[in-house]
Amino acid sequence: MDLMRRGWPIAVAARLVLATSLLPWFRTGWAEGDGWATNSATAWASSTWWAAAVTACLVAAGAALTGLRPGRSATVLRWGAMGLAVAAVAVTVVTWARIPPLVMGEGMGWSAASADSRGVGDIVRDDLVLIHIDGLSQQVGWGAYAGLAAMVLFTAVLVVRAVRP
Fold it and tell me: Which residues of 74-110 are buried (b: 16+ CB within 10 A; e: fewer)?
């Protein structure tokens, strides 16, 4: 029973990370007729690094919950889980910061994605571009903010559990 009492914050925070990973982490909108069409992608669909960070948080949750049991390896598991969560936050922030803005090409042309793209508004995994021009917008979605906040909360829970088992 004591294990459940001490482990529920880890489990809840991990579920929050998983739930926010399914929100729109990257979105695009473009002019279509008299209105706007939109498209969005989850952490899993938009970036391999963001998906790896979410996976790292889930692995860290398993290690942290295992580390709540008494034993010699418990301390190593708790601190290792915390380190993995910190790394996941760092990977998320660095991946976000490295999304390049659109560079207008010569001859007034522009490209929103690689040649593998199927059309305007497509989100190409691992080939994200920030665009803010008339009639086209590609940007980080609100789910990335929520996901990063959930990862930071999860990391804070693991820091508390590592310091005070």
Answer: eeebbbbbbebbbbbbebbeebbeebeeeeeeeeeee
**Nearby residues of 68 by Cβ (< 8 Å), 6 or more positions away:** 3, 6, 7, 10, 74, 78, 161, 165
Phi, psi of 21 (to 5 degrees): -70, -15
- Residue 33 in domain: no
Cα 104 to Cα 112: distance, rounded to the nearest angstrom:
10
Per the structure, how many domains does the chain have?
1
Of the candidates 157, 142, 152, the one whose C-alpha atom is nearest the C-alpha of residue 22 is 142
Determine the Cα–Cα distance for residues 82 and 61; give it in Å rounded to an integer.
9
**Beta strands 136-140 and 131-133: pairing type?**
antiparallel
State the Cα–Cα distance between residues 82 and 10, nearest whole angstrom: 11
User: CB–CB of 47/128 below 8 Å?
Assistant: yes
Q: Does the residue 76 lie in any domain?
A: yes
Segment 28-51, tens digit of pLDDT: 988 888 888 888 999 999 999 999
Pairing of strands 26-32, 136-140: antiparallel
What average pLDDT is seen over the chain? 86
